[in-house]
Structure formats: C-alpha cells, structure tokens
C-alpha cells in the first residue's frame, strides 16, 4: 500500500502580512523561506515559513489579505496546527510566550504535554515536546537549536463525519490508528518527525472560512509518479481530485474528504531553492514565470513587509 510520510504543509488565512511575519518568524523563530503570491489571487501574498531549508513537514503557509472577514474554526477544517519542539524546551517556550504577552495553557493528551495558544489572527497552535526529528539550526530570532521548532508534530482535524475521515487517513493515506482518548481518535505517520493526527469525535460548530482559519492541509508525496498514483486511486474511490497543478515549489492535487476538510497531496521536490539560493530564501518577492511581466504592478499593490527582530509585545 502506498503511504504518505506525513504532513507536507498547512495553509491558513490571516489579515495582516507584517503581523503574520512578526509572529511566526519573530516570536516562534521559523524562517521565512518564500515570499511569493497566491497563484490564484496574485494581489495576495503567499508566505511560507519552515526550518532553515524549508523542508516538507516543517512548512506553514499563509494567505494574508486585510479585507477578508473573520472566520470561525469548526467542522470541515483543521482545528489545530501542532509543532514539535525538543525535549526539555517547554519551559523556555512558556517564558518566551510570556515575554511577548501571548496567553497559553497546557494539557496532556496521549501522555504528551501540549502548550496551546493562539496566533494574532486566532489560529490555534500547539507546541509538543518530541525526541524524533532533526534539529533546526535556524536561529535568526535568537532561539538556539536546543529549543527551536523542528517542524510539525501533527494536527487536529474537525470533521463533519469523523469516522469517514478516519477511513480516509487509514485506507487511502496509509496512516496507522494508535487509539482514542478523551474524545479524540489518534493516527500517526511514518515520517522522520512522527506526525500524529487527532480527529475530534465530539460535536463542533460548523466552520466558516475566513481569517483565523486553516484553508487546507497537504500530505507528502515522494514525487510526481507517486502523486499520479494517488490521483488515480482517489478518482477510483469517488473523491474527484483536481488535475495536477504546478505550484513552482511542488506539484499537487486537491480534493475534499468526506468530512468536508480540503486535502492536498504535494510532491517533496523540487523545493524552495528552485528559484533562489538557500542563503537568500525569503528575502525577495519570487514570482512564477507567467507573472514576471506584472512584477512592477504587483510590487506596488502588495504591502511592504520584512522580517524584524522583536524585543517584546507584538
């Protein structure tokens, strides 16, 4: 059976691009690895954050648009994006969040302590201590490798049909069910950083798309050959996937699973150094070739943004 090795990226909707960069780069210490545009709406940025090289499994991406209405987290969405942090670093992160006046709380699920908080747009984020996974050496925000976020530890899905979503994770994507606890059904992947996917089994409100909500979650495919096999399987099972789309840094397909959540399957290659050197990732506005002729117009339309060193409250 073909199996995904876990999460490729998670994409969310927010209002303010600079505030988004300040939080994910300035507070959480992720690297802005790509500053590009939403290929479907080029007047909106598409910002990618990850580890020092932007490896799949570390990537959170955003569509910041000031005019979009506030959304509501609920059924048919990813409810929580969870990050892996090194063992023994949770007290560092509590102190760092306090420094930036980010409210948080802790809870235990499946014998793991979760540090839970919201970003400035209301997205739910967690930090979870985890032994697995490579060290992240990106430390532009003054966070040392022994504390730095490694990548995703997983996500929580809020499905309109939890058991149908569970079947998708197990029978199509090849994740393994490892149990249920306190109203959550847990699956895990076989990635280097073990991604755990929790499905919420208790009732939730209907999700409304908008700022402060996750747009989609993407799963990893090794290459385009594997992606095409998944597309054929999804068609066979009646999921109506899109055609293969070229996103410049990966190729992908999209489909809605039975619980209403938008899934994407994305290839690991070619990666983010395809159009700029690793040392310069995220420094310049990168455009696909078919939009390069509109660069001057887009640079005038898009708000100026930069990665800043923060000293205190956002």
TrEMBL record:
Q: Does the keyword Protein biosynthesis apply?
A: no
Which key words tag this protein in UniProt?
Dioxygenase, Oxidoreductase
Domain of life where this protein originates: Bacteria
Q: Give one Pfam hit by family name.
A: Glyoxalase
Residues forming the VOC domain are 6-130, 151-268
Example GO molecular function: dioxygenase activity
Q: Is this entry keyworded Transcription?
A: no
Name this polypeptide is given: Ring-cleaving dioxygenase
In its UniProt entry, the species of origin is given as Bacillus norwichensis
């Amino acid at each position: 059976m073909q199996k995904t090795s876990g999460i490729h990226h998670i994409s969310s909707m927010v209002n303010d691009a600079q505030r988004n960069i300040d939080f994910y780069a300035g507070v959480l210490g992720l690297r802005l690895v790509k500053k590009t545009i939403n290929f479907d709406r080029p007047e909106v940025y598409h910002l990618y954050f990850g580890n020092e090289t932007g490896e799949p499994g570390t990537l959170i991406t955003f569509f910041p648009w000031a005019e979009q209405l506030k959304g509501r987290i609920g059924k048919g969405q990813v409810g929580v994006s969870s990050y892996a942090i090194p063992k023994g670093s949770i007290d560092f992160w509590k102190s760092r969040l306090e420094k930036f006046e980010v409210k948080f709380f802790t809870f235990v699920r499946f014998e793991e302590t979760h540090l839970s908080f919201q970003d400035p747009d209301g997205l739910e984020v967690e930090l979870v201590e985890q032994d697995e996974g490579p060290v992240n050496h990106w430390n532009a925000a003054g966070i040392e490798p022994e504390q730095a976020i490694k990548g995703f530890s997983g996500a929580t899905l809020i499905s309109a049909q939890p058991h149908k979503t569970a079947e998708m994770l197990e029978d199509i994507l090849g994740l393994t069910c490892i149990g249920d606890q306190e109203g959550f059904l847990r699956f895990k992947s076989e990635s280097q950083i073990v991604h755990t996917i929790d499905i919420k089994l208790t009732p939730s409100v209907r999700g409304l798309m908008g700022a402060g909500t996750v747009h989609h979650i993407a799963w990893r495919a090794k290459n385009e050959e594997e992606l095409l096999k998944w597309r054929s399987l999804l068609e066979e099972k009646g999921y109506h996937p899109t055609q293969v789309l070229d996103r410049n840094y990966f190729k992908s397909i999209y489909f809605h699973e039975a619980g209403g959540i938008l899934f994407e399957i994305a290839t690991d290659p070619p990666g983010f150094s395809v159009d700029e050197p690793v040392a310069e990732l995220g420094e310049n506005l990168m455009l696909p070739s078919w939009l390069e002729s509109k660069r001057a117009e887009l640079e005038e339309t898009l708000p100026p943004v930069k990665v800043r060193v923060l000293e205190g409250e956002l």
